[in-house]
Amino acid sequence: MTSLYKQSIPVFVKYLNNLGAIAQKGQAFADDTGKKHEEILDFRLVPDMQGLRYQVQSCCNTAVWFADRVGELEHTAVADDETTFAQLQTRIEKTVAYLNGVDPVAIDSHADKPLIMDRGKFGKFHFDTAQTYFSEFAMPNFHFHLTSGYCILRTQGAPIGAMDYMKDVFKKV
Fold first, then answer.
1. S-S: 104 plus which of 5, 39, 40, 162, CB 3.0-4.6 Å?
2. Which residues form a coiled coil (predicted)?
């Protein structure tokens, strides 16, 4: 079986890089069409859903919290205060750099251990193993927010498609 580290950290990194590229295309689209950046960054697919900024922040937070919870690493909270495409890009880059520095042993040595996720006002949630936390919460939550961000940009007219989301997934033979 593939190690938990190999299933998680490199995959988070790959898709965070794809998110960065998608966001850059969104910014270029806004610049080319004269659309205000704030319109795209604040756009909500439905009124009770958050905008693009939150979706990017949530992808970054989910990946970092995964590494910190599973690896039992000290978590340093990051303020979700980005207001521009450039700041979101920096957030993605810092998250990728952090994840690239995570020791595989820190993740793999805890794969079969139970995990409690404390979500503050939402309560505490138990997962039988870190592997279960990854497969049933962390990765689905990450892709939910990535897909939401992608859909926000598509809805606003940014010229992105499935291959932007899936960039570097396929290897031609």
1. 5
2. none
